[in-house]
Write a structure and sequence with these properties.
It comes from Nocardia arthritidis. The structure is a single chain. A hairpin with a 3-residue loop joins β10 and β11. The chain contains twelve helices and twelve strands. The chain starts with a strand and ends in a 24-residue tail after the last helix. It has two domains: 125 residues, NAD(P)-binding Rossmann-like Domain (Rossmann fold, 3-Layer(aba) Sandwich); 143 residues, Dihydrodipicolinate Reductase, domain 2, CATH 3.30.360. By secondary structure, the chain is α/β, with parallel strands linked by helices. Strands 3-2-1-4-5-6 form a six-stranded parallel β-sheet, sandwiched between helices. Strands 7, 8, 9, 10, 11 and 12 form a six-stranded mixed β-sheet that branches. α11 runs antiparallel to α12.
Length: 299
Amino acid sequence: MTRILMLGGAGQMGQSAARILAAAPAVDRLVLTDLDARRAADFAKTLGPKASGIGLDVTDELALRAALADCDLVLNTVGPYFRFGEPILAATIAAGRNYIDICDDWEPTLAMLAMDEKARAAGIYALVGMGSSPGVANMLAVTAARELDTVDSIVTAWSAEDARTAVSDDGPSAAFVHGMHQISGSIRVVCDGVHVDRPALERIRIDYPGIGRGVAWSFGHPEAVTLDRAFPELRGNTNAIVADNLFIGVCHLLRWAVGAKLFTVDRAAAVAHRIVPLLPASGLIKPGALPRCSPWPPV
């Protein structure tokens, strides 16, 4: 009998995984949590008899401990992970439960990977960053790199068009808060073979075979601090966002506002949530094709 506790299972990211797990024969019971108990229960009803929903505040240590006691596996989709990733994994290890998440912040990724000995001592498995990016992006990068004789640098990237999918009627999602956090201040990348902290949104020139020249912009993400574990010889490793100049201009403005302490990260996320739907579609992604890079700006 496999019992899964899905933290944040009624949220934007959690719902997709919940639908897949509810249909999986290997899953016997699926408990979804959300801050809003009714939201969790209502969504669980759409998934069939395996699923149930409960209200849970993951910052309530006693309530979280009680929920962890009655499961075999924890799937954590509660973001932003720079706030919730470490304490939830620590509680899961203490409870002796296996763990998976889709952590997309580089800081807690490094902190959680450092919990390896504690997880081993507890006899549990913990898989961090098992989403599309990071996760699938890492596997694609490794697969491509292993086809080459040598690998000097890796750039993983995602399209700004993805930000539109994070817009909801419930206000700025954790994805927007994550985004504002990762364009503010410094991010960690591999430069000249070592981990260094650099300002976010630095321009990266790309010459992509079969597509052409363009630019991307550095963005804090776990790929940039984990792929060198598979390829220790890497001289450079960066994650980037592919976007048009208007979108990047908005990002630079919000980065400046946070740095000047005019906005908090949460306030910047709320502003971004309002602005993104108003921006014209850039057409960077075409169905059935690789992403096209935005033109090299003259700056």
